[in-house]
Structures are given as C-alpha cells and as structure tokens.
Amino acid sequence: MSIKQEVFGKTAAGLPVSLFTLANAAGMTVKITNYGGTIVQLHVPDRTGRTADIVLGYDTLAEYEAGNNYFGALIGRCGNRINAGKFALNGKIYQLAVNEMPQRNTHLHGGVTGFNRMVWDAATSEADGNSVLKLSRLSSDGEEGYPGNLNVTATYTLTADNRLMLEFDAVTDAPTIVNLTAHSYFNLGGHDSGPVTGHELRINASRFTPINSEYIPSGELRSVRNTPFDFLQAKPVGRDVGASGEQLANGGGYDHNFIIDRKSVDALEAAAEVYDPASGRVMTVLTTQPGVQFYSGNFLNDNPGKQGARYPRRGALCLEPQHYPDAPNHAHFPSIELLPGQDYHQAIVYQFTTR
C-alpha cells in the first residue's frame, strides 16, 4: 500500500489544492483531490490484469471548477433534490437556493456552492495495511441556507482486496438536515470506451420512488415488477432505457431513487452490482443507506473529458447511495434530520472483482 501527495493547482480564489494517490499491490490506484473530495482517476484491473481508468473526469482543477456535472465529487449537505428548495424543521420554513436548470424549481446537490466546490482539509495515514485519506470541513451555520454548524469528515480507504470505502461522519450544534453521497460516473470498460448500455446491472430493490417532470418524488413507493425499473435480475442498462412510459420520459432515462431491500436498518449491505462483459470488471456497491440513485448518463452529450476524451450520451452510469430525494417534504420517507448530540454515520463501499 502507498500514498502520494502532489500539487493539483490553485483555485480561482487562490487556495492551494492537492491530489492524493492511493495504491495497493493488487493493481488498483485511486487519485482523489481535496477540491470537492473528488475522485479524479480510478484504475482497476480487468480479467487479464490490464488496468484502465473507469471514472469520468477532467485533467485540471480549473475544469473541475468550471464543470457542472459533479464528476466524482462529494455531495452535501443534501444530495439529490429538494422541491422548490423549501423544507420545514421545528416549525420554521427554510429556503435554500434553487440552482438546477432554469426549467426546474429545485435545490440540487447542496446548492450553488455545495460540498463539491469546497476545499477540504486533508490528512493521510495507513491503518491495518490500508491507505486512508481523511477529508474534513466545517459547514457553517447558514451555508447555502442550511441551519447549524456541521462538522463533516469523509474518509476514503483503499484496501488490499480492491475495496474503496467512503465513510461519512458529521455532528451539528443545531437541528439540521443531512444527506451525503458521492457522484462518480462509472464506465467499467474505461472512461473513454463509449456508452455503457451493454453493462449488466442488478439493483437489490423491489420498489422505487416515481418522479414528476421536475425530478421530485410523488411520495409513492412503487413496485418495480413488470416495469423497466426491474433490475432484481441483472440486465443490460440499455435494454429498457428507451421504453415508453411516463417515468422514463420524466427522467430522460433512468434518474430515480431505488429503495434497497435491506435486511437491517443500518448494516453495510449490497445495493447494486455492475458487470462489463467486455472487460470482465465487476463493481459491487454496498452501503448503509436506504436508497440508491441510479442515473444512466442521460445528459452527457459529447462532453469534453480527460486526455482528450469526449463523453457521449449514456457514456457512464452513476450509483449514488443516499436517503430518498426531497425527504424533508415526505413524512413517510426515512428522515434526514440531524440533531445536536447525534452522530451521523453512513458508508459506501465499491468492491471490484472480475469474472
């Protein structure tokens, strides 16, 4: 195991930013910057032992500052969407930024300057033979409209058996809401290898949350049975993505929260598995979260990326473990409220194997 730190650049405001490389003896390497806690590169072996970078991204810090796709970033304080940017907490109405595309009246991924655009404090270590990068920051009371001072840590751990674990911890000094996640775009064939419609996906979810045209859940918890949303048995991502129906039309494809069939409330359990038949790479996503947002790269459109790559529509997929979108406005959804004295802890594991 090894860890290396190098200069990644300076932000437009002049803040220095680093790039951290974590590597193991099994051929896996991950590069993470403390700008947004972003996974910049993720090199994983295929069935022959040949490695490829399997996450979309950019070459430079300036491109990450200018980008709006959330490539590889940490998301907070609240991932996904909040309807009209409003929520009630202890009888008070809070108004957050409405920052999604102009046609949508939604608060998206923490606001205009969410956690993805912050420079985090960073510390590295090695524990039990694993490489560890710990990022931390104080999200001040009123940041992006959220109440309470929130102390947050995001800890990346690369293990010898090709697991990349991300653990979130947070405490607050006043009642607030928190829904942290990560937003890597995965293409198991390599970031520049074209559409992922041939990737085979299984999601351990027998229900999902339908959305309206602004991507806000209706509140219904709908069965996936006999719908294009049934991934209980693995199938190609592209098999049903173009099927007719209101839900795929509303999302432009898949951009929905799937309710994980959990055996317990907060244990680390498998949410999804992706397999690329061409390379043999398999990614299993485990989490403590109750839901996982599956996004099929609907709005990629020849986007410029690393090393001269152009990312086509459906050139990657995202699997974002999290609580349900717009949770504060649906009393029957799992709560995302965090109170003083409580410890917020959630985990995501990306396990890589081959077959």
Sum up the structure in keywords.
mainly beta, Beta-galactosidase, Chain A, domain 5, 9-stranded antiparallel sheet, 42% strand, globular
Low-confidence stretches: none
CATH architecture: Distorted Sandwich
**CATH topology grouping:** Beta-galactosidase, Chain A, domain 5
Helix content: under 10%
- Structural shape: globular
What is the tally of helical segments? Answer: 2
CATH C-level name: Mainly Beta
Question: Would you write up a description of this structure?
Answer:
The chain has a single domain, classed as Beta-galactosidase, Chain A, domain 5, CATH 2.70.98. The longest helix has 6 residues, at about 60-65. It is globular, with a radius of gyration of 19 Å. It contains two helices and 29 strands. The model has no long low-confidence stretch (mean pLDDT about 95). The protein has helices at about 60-65, 245-250; strands at about 1-10, 15-25, 30-35, 40-45, 50-55, 75, 80-85, 85-90, 90-95, 105-110, 120-125, 130-140, 150-160, 165-170, 175, 180-185, 200-205, 205-210, 220-225, 235, 255-260, 270-275, 280-285, 290-295, 305, 310, 320, 335-340, 345-355. It is mainly β and about 350 residues long. The chain has a nine-stranded antiparallel sheet with strand order 11-12-13-14-29-23-22-17-20, with no helix packed on it. It starts with a strand and ends with a strand.
